[in-house]
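Project channel, design review

CF: Before we commit to the Stieleria neptunia constructs, I'd like one complete example in the thread so the newer folks can see what an input/output pair looks like. Taking tRNA (Adenine(22)-N(1))-methyltransferase.
RD: sounds good, go ahead.
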Amino acid sequence: MPKLDDRLKAVAVQIRSRVHADIGSDHGHLLKALLTSGRIERGIAIEVNQRPCENSRSTLVGLAADVRLADGLAGLSPGEADSLSICGMGGELITRILETHPERVPPDLVLQPNRRPDAVRRWALQAGFHLVDEQLVVGRLRYVVMRYRLDRSSADPAYDAMDHEAALLFGPLLIQRWESQLQGVLLDEYQYLKELQQRTEQSQHRLNVLAKLLRLKGLLD
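CF: and here is what came back for tRNA (Adenine(22)-N(1))-methyltransferase:
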């Protein structure tokens, strides 16, 4: 797909719908790739700042896309979009955007937090969104791309028979697949946290959960 880095390529392959909204669209490259590849029929780019909004308008000119200057879901009407993406923000900010106008959240979501993916996972469990897929993208930085679908009929089966806290912190489907890339990332983090001279309560908790998971998987004595 054109003009997308590995992170946004991983996001794009998770999206296929009629109308897709992208919050924090920046230059609009994700929507352009989705439109030109036929993965969506219409796009809605929403930006809270003027300059990125102008960047998106320039990128999406001539395509079936609206570009709106608005604060998150304030720029979207209930039922207007079939799917939504929010990428490149912290997990706390992503959840704040989703919680502000819950009636405007589409049934299909692709979310890529730069930090605190556990905040997104906790929100999804409370809001009745099931985790359909998650992918780890490792480059200069590490990202998790998560796809959710609204389903309030039952608890999310992705967390069945899982250590709940480990699943929230490191991803239930990633842990189930347990690929070598994830193992390397977790071992690196374990070593970093173990050697950290002063740990916060949060980092100590993360180390404890991580050590338990790695022992369970046979990677620690």
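RD: helpful, thanks. Strands lie at 17-23, 40-47, 65-69, 83-90, 108-115, 129-138, 142-150.
CF: Residues 180-195 form the longest helix (16 residues).
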